[in-house]
Specification:
7 helices, two-stranded antiparallel ribbon, about 240 residues, alpha/beta, globular, seven-stranded mixed beta sheet, about 25% strand
């Protein structure tokens, strides 16, 4: 399902929310959004993990991990998990939350400037993108797509504001869905949040789509026009061409 920006939707912030602003939130309250106890988040985390299309992943990256609640659930599905946040106290809490999980590393980093080296076969972005300016979000998404290996999965889950008073999941997911390197394999939405799982195409797949469309435009008038090849996910998670 394609999600597009609608007239009147709240715009992206002119500047990304600063480190000082986030640090102030954690200073006032160690768990600023009550992630450990609020039903909205507990339910969202359960649906997110249940929606993962593969039983296990080799290497996962979770930017904006906060205090590590989702991190703990993802760890059970990943051989290796790198979680990151840029608030020191959040990183400390997340490290405590996963201290018994030897496959998890939690680090502090500033996004989009300090993305880790890839590749990853899973990237999970939860409640993060709407804090970024248009420029920073584009840079972050560019970097994530670059580090996502072919057939790797990008999970995005963000709250929705149907009053359209805030920059929310409906608007930020449009940026992800517009990327030609990605195709949607899971979409879920309800009154509270939106979840999309996008799979990384191979480089050849993107070129094939462009070549098919270009060739179709060069057909002489009256010539038979065949439908372009469409790619659909197969049960093993790979793309299969069909007419």
């Amino acid at each position: 399902m394609a999600i597009v920006r609608q007239p009147g939707d709240a715009p992206a912030p002119a500047e990304s929310v600063s480190h000082a602003e986030f640090t102030d939130l954690y200073t006032k309250k160690p768990d600023p959004w009550d992630l450990a106890t609020k039903w909205y988040d507990q339910r969202k985390y359960a649906i997110t993990v249940a929606s993962l299309p593969r039983p296990r992943y080799r290497r996962c990256y979770e930017p904006g991990c906060s205090i590590g609640e989702l991190t703990k659930l993802l760890a059970a599905r990943c051989d290796e998990l790198l979680a990151a946040d840029f608030v020191e106290s959040a990183v400390a809490q997340a490290r405590t939350a996963v201290q018994d999980l030897t496959n998890v590393t939690v680090t502090r980093s500033v996004l989009p400037a300090e993305l880790p080296d890839g590749p990853f076969d899973l990237v999970v972005v939860s409640e993060l993108l709407y804090y970024l300016s248009t420029r920073d979000m584009k840079q972050l998404v560019d970097g994530i797509v670059e580090r996502l290996e072919p057939h790797g999965d990008l999970v995005a889950v963000h709250y929705r504001d149907d009053r359209r008073q805030h920059y929310d999941g409906v608007t930020v997911h449009a940026e992800l869905l517009s990327r030609p390197q990605l195709h949607s394999i899971v979409h879920y939405e309800d009154e509270a949040f939106i979840l999309d799982i996008l799979r990384r195409r191979t480089r050849g797949t993107t070129l094939i789509h462009g070549a098919v469309q270009a060739a179709g435009n060069l057909l002489p008038r009256g010539a038979e026009r065949r439908r372009p090849t469409r790619l659909t996910p197969t049960p093993d998670g790979h793309d299969k061409a069909r007419q």
